[in-house]
Amino acid sequence: GQDNEESKLIGSILTCCRDAEEPGTPMQELKLQGDINQLWQALFPRLELEQKKTSHQSRLAQSRVHLMLNYIHEHYHEKILLEDIAAAANISKREALRCFSLCIQTTPVQYLNDYRLQCAETMLLQTTAPITAVALESGFDNAGYFCKVFKKKYGVTPSLYRRRTKPYLP
């Protein structure tokens, strides 16, 4: 089984090493090339199998992230915990973190906050709703925190952002 394959592989590697240490005659070079070919023949199926596993894992992670993103987009205005996001894909919190990291290089909570900020920005530009209402409708549970994270991302407070982009509003 696998132990026998491992032994053959190690044997091929050792043979290559031994033959590489021999004096460089034309016959020796041919022998070494043959050893290396055998080594590649032993390694190549393993590499293909590993690529297939990685590809499958990547597709699985992508489908899980898709489910979690759908959940976030539908529920961003509610109080959401990492557990809720993970449950949308029927996985653990740790697996949710791994999938997000692999697929979109962020965490679920960071993505949620960024999405909420995008929604808030849209509301600031398209409505005259008070800042507190924008904060609450975007899923932030208090206007102070919303203003803090908005300013950190956009460099200005939400009200100043609105005034700069829609100067005709009060």
Give a count of the beta strands, DSSP E runs of length 2 or more: 0
Low-pLDDT windows of residues: none
Strand content: under 5%
Shape: elongated
Radius of gyration: 28 Å
Helix-strand makeup class: mainly alpha
Total DSSP helices: 8
H-E order: HHHHHHHH
Helix content: over 70%
Mean pLDDT: 86
Largest sheet: none
Instruction: Kindly report how far apart the N and C termini lie.
Output: 77 Å
Give an overview in words:
The protein is an all-alpha fold. 79% of the residues lie in helices and 0% in strands. It is built from 8 helices and no strands. It has helices at 2-21, 26-75, 82-88, 93-104, 108-126, 131-137, 143-154, 158-165. Helix 1 crosses helix 2 (26-75). The chain is elongated. The N and C termini lie far apart (77 Å).
Summarize the structure.
With 170 residues, the protein is mainly alpha-helical.
Task: Outline the fold blueprint.
Layout: H1 2-21, H2 26-75, H3 82-88, H4 93-104, H5 108-126, H6 131-137, H7 143-154, H8 158-165
Helix pairs in contact: 1-2, 2-3, 2-4, 3-4
